[in-house]
Amino acid sequence: MPISEAKKASNKKWNDANMKERYDRIQLVVPKGQKETIQARASSQGESVNAFVTTAIDERIARLDGSQAPMASAPAIATASPFESTQIPPKEPTT
Hints:
It is a single chain. This protein has helices at residues 5-22, 34-44, 49-65. By secondary structure, the protein is mainly alpha-helical. It has a domain at 32-80. Helix 2 packs across helix 3. The radius of gyration is 16 Å and the shape is extended.
């Protein structure tokens, strides 16, 4: 469903007032084709790409720190594209 011009204007107003104060931006570069895989996996989990990646980072930091509970993530901002689910093979454990 397309976003109305009023909703776009409302989103822009909120972004202009809040984004720079509340969030840091990170540009992520991935190998060709991986973007679609990430989008598909996020969508299959009902998450935005931003929420999916942020959760993955939080879980990795928690594992590295030896804690059980992941850090609290910021609210999701980005939206995921509706791609079909893609199977991602499990990562081999490192020793």
